Amino acid sequence: xxxxxxxxxxxxxxxxxxxxxxxxxxxxxxxxxxxxxxxxxxxxxxxxxxxxxxxxxxxxxxxxxxxxxxxxxxxxxxxxxxxxxxxxxxxxxxxxxxxxxxxxxxxxxxxxxxxxxxxxxxxxxxxxxxxxxxxxxxxxxxxxxxxxxxxxxxxxxxxxxxxxxxxxxxxxxxxxxxxxxxxxxxxxxxxxxxxxxxxxxxxxxxxxxxxxxxxxxxxxxxxxxxxxxxxxxxxxxxxxxxxxxxxxxxxxxxxxxxxxxxxxxxxxxxxxxxxxxxxxxxxxxxxxxxxxxxxxxxxxxxxxxxxxxxxxxxxxxxxxxxxxxxxxxxxxxxxxxxxxxxxxxxxxxxxxxxxxxxxxxxxxxxxxxxxxxxxxxxxxxxxxxxxxxxxxxxxxxxxxxxxxxxxxxxxxxxxxxxxxxxxxxxx
Amino acid sequence: xxxxxxxxxxxxxxxxxxxxxxxxxxxxxxxxxxxxxxxxxxxxxxxxxxxxxxxxxxxxxxxxxxxxxxxxxxxxxxxxxxxxxxxxxxxxxxxxxxxxxxxxxxxxxxxxxxxxxxxxxxxxxxxxxxxxxxxxxxxxxxxxxxxxxxxxxxxxxxxxxxxxxxxxxxxxxxxxxxxxxxxxxxxxxxxxxxxxxxxxxxxxxxxxxxxxxxxxxxxxxxxxxxxxxxxxxxxxxxxxxxxxxxxxxxxxxxxxxxxxxxxxxxxxxxxxxxxxxxxxxxxxxxxxxxxxxxxxxxxxxxxxxxxxxxxxxxxxxxxxxxxxxxxxxxxxxxxxxxxxxxxxxxxxxxxxxxxxxxxxxxxxxxxxxxxxxxxxxxxxxxxxxxxxxxxxxxxxxxxxxxxxxxxxxxxxxxxxxxxxxxxxxxxxxxxxxxxxxxxxxxxxxxxxxxxxxxxxxxxxxxxxxxxxxxxxxxxxxxxxxxxxxxxxxxxxxxxxxxxxxxxxxxxxxxxxxxxxxxxxxxxxxxxxxxxxxxxxxxxxxx
Amino acid sequence: xxxxxxxxxxxxxxxxxxxxxxxxxxxxxxxxxxxxxxxxxxxxxxxxxxxxxxxxxxxxxxxxxxxxxxxxxxxxxxxxxxxxxxxxxxxxxxxxxxxxxxxxxxxxxxxxxxxxxxxxxxxxxxxxxx
Amino acid sequence: xxxxxxxxxxxxxxxxxxxxxxxxxxxxxxxxxxxxxxxxxxxxxxxxxxxxxxxxxxxxxxxxxxxxxxxxxxxxxxxxxxxxxxxxxxxxxxxxxxxxxxxxxxxxxxxxxxxxxxxxxxxxxxxxxxxxxxxxxxxxxxxxxxxxxxxxxxxxxxxxxxxxxxxxxxxxxxxxxxxxxxxxxxxxxxxxxxxxxxxxxxxxxxxxxxxxxxxxxxx
Lengths: 427, 542, 130, 219
What we know:
The structure holds four protein chains of four kinds. Helices cover 22% and strands 23% of the residues of chain A. Chain A is α/β, with parallel strands linked by helices. In chain A, the strands form six sheets. Chain A has a five-stranded parallel β-sheet, covered by helices on one side. In chain A, strands 11-18-12-13-14 form a five-stranded parallel β-sheet. In chain B, α1 packs parallel to α5 and α8 packs parallel to α9 (294-310).
């Protein structure tokens, strides 16, 4: 039987949420896309391009294209600063209460001309574009930074706004949506490298995480470090930081790939740089990675064994203590820069979202699935999972998983009972 | 000269300070065929759009130039505004005076802004309307390959009301799974019966695709079955021909069936009674082919099963265990907990067959020196390869392959299941080595893309945006060979000479053909040679 | 009169990179004139020669990274055509080095700015020598 | 079809050096198919001429035109008024086109801008190879459809020459297939190897009077 309400709510506007929303919209479904931050795109759209003289197949630009396409699609309604408050009903007839925090800027009126930011006295600016690429296309007033919300009587931005888009009285408003299905695409949290105290992140400025390196390359385009001193000659990547350890019983799948791609980019930009990657098991599988790995197998030094300690030497360099398994002894090496390849951990607010939606978590802390065969369906009919909220994935897999979630939602909405087929699948 | 061009300038709410819009206005009004130059503060807001529609209507212009922010986000909305004002959306030329002029340079950039707008005016002067056209399409789907992916797609499509034809080269569906050729052993019985009983799905076994013409929405193919060719029409095609494995040639001659493939071991495990249960089992993987997940996953599964069923000693020789799949790390930990010995070696172990047993000489990095292990049964490394007929089928379909020979070019814009030809999708093992979860995602992605493409029953295309002029075309086939999307065919209209014809549905508007055509026969509306050169003509005059 | 640099920018990569350069406040030389094209593969030798006929200082063809072209072969064909144009220019005594092909991605505004600075510096040096 | 290749720029510049106004005439058939003289190449040559002369400070105006076939009188006459305007014509057509143009506009010099090379076919996009030498006495029936006169470096009628390299490659040019090996394999496939033993008499080139003339039966 065809369900009458065919609209779909997508929670989270990372690349898998965007992929689901885009596919559903192209198939004629009305989509509400809600995002808790002020900007859409999540992590994928914020990474850097790792191409040297040829593309490194990291899919960031493909994610960016889908994001731009979703922003102008007529059947997708984007609600930023919004979270799910309450849920009732079942497949085909969900009632969802959304709380949208106020941006204090009317998105229909804002033309992103930047005049408000120019006059804002707060340091750092309290009113700014939603992201560097300003997606969605409007500014946002940050309550925490704005002097007006700290008691000062300041309305410089409001008076200078040519299109009268800034309204301080905007209260958080409540949306009552009725949708046929829900796709959860809330993404992941980057493992906080401070939890591995012995590796020195947060203590030594030359210890960065993979995410910091991505941000440096995204902002500067080359390895420009805040610490003085010339280009780092000797760089170490430490794998499996926050993956495959006592509290994370899974491989985050992305760290070996981004470490090798960033290492290749560093060596391309600075041929004298020597890069060492410390690993347990090198994950070099996947589409398009074969000839890529052959190319840099020679130039990168791979050492089997994870460092246990990073200390700063008197000369300001970093001394890394590790057990070199192939030589069977403990060694210490000195590096200019140490990058901790941090892994994927479950999102921070998974607990309350799971409670609101009534979906359970698996023992790694990601959202649980009905059975290993359908990695999109949760224990609640009509609520589907997309992307890294169900488990670690790289960008192409997240996109595929998002599109698959859309496909399952469409099938559920057209009255299809996806009863289990009785067959045993082993990889 | 008849005044037919209207120019709208937008100072972005006053945000653009280093352009003197009045000076720009005086300069542009002097252009002979410009009817008016209107300066507005926010064209992208409702009131701005309102003024555009009203000004166009009462001034009766035919072409519109809008100098504002980047067309990337706004060309779409201004196109709709033109349509509201009764103009074709393609009669719009935009000049990017904000991101690429005002924000990009220090100091006064009025001169550059004037030049950018003149470039847009020169282009606008030559713009022609492009109409939308609806093409009826065929809603049936051809699925090539009757394995796990192919059958699953057919089932999910039939649930969405789309009819599918499954083409299987072998005489039986799902023949490949469970053979020595594959890794996974999966009891396909119930799924095959479900497919055969589904009246939305037509199964053609021992049948092969031999000819294909047309493009997305209207593929006409010829299927060879039992010696005769059946002509058929389809809207979309899915390639799901799976992968093939090749047992790495063991250095010793086969010593009495001791060296097996993963699937053969599966069958041994599944057999109820076994005359002699192997006491020690060895696995080797990740030496010749360091980029595949299947060997690791299959090894973990079979090793645990062997431990459980035969309680045999299990040795695994590998370089790196590929655990980048959901649940693989847990399986790896369980295997170690159950006493399965993992020996990580940098160099591949040597395999010697001696007195009825298989001896493996490996240099394990922990122990440091060569050690010899004797096993009753050894599962040698299997390399994952594309199906044998991949060459024939990919040239028949004219689709690209990646560096290891699997379907789908290694281009990130094609992931997950697209190919450079619209309407043809590639799913599962034939696209690369994918574990179970990824194959299932591929299947659902393909179903979604096909549903989105075929369910409306028609395709809305720009009619003749890229067009080959029959008079000028000398049928030299260059465009036919060059088009990356195979959107150009040689057509012979009745009693006319054979000329190139661009299929609007398949064309992706890249313009590669228009650039290379030696007879300048192909025009690409919006970016014709004249329109590009006209923009260059506006340079130099300050 | 500072001569212009014509930059044929692919709408999938170079054009958004130029926009992003503007949005993130990166400044670059003012004598650049960007012409938007659907793909670097749309640019033919005749467009490059016509630009030099107009007396521009340099012509740049900016396409997607190698292997990431939306139309698979667009940027490779553009590279071949730029080489052919360079040869044609040398044949007529013009400086073949004034036409160049670069690859960049939509989220690399600094690469866009670096390319333009590099090209304008090269032209400035050559002008000084003359 | 006829394959041609554009002349080098030095030669073309020398030809038009004395003139201020020239017409570049393209042909839309054979030379367009082999990328030598179609409308696109006309644009490129015209633009190169302007650039070259601007660099020398000796301006030139170049008109551009392309006709369907330059070896057809009626089609070439379409250029009548353009030729009248100019002092010389650069024709990108094959030899037949250049001479047809020269016959019709005898008062103006008509220069060839391409070298007509051979009758051939495209091996792949952008690469053309010679197939036929127009010897006027075709004996392809006896060589399984491979012409040794042109495709064998030595033009042997009773090859192969015994110097054939491994893999059936020509003695003189290692990349080129030896024509007679191709002939042998083709005949072998068709089971007509007996033809290899037959003696092919030397060709009587005198039989073909140059220039050739063919008179069709009056329809």
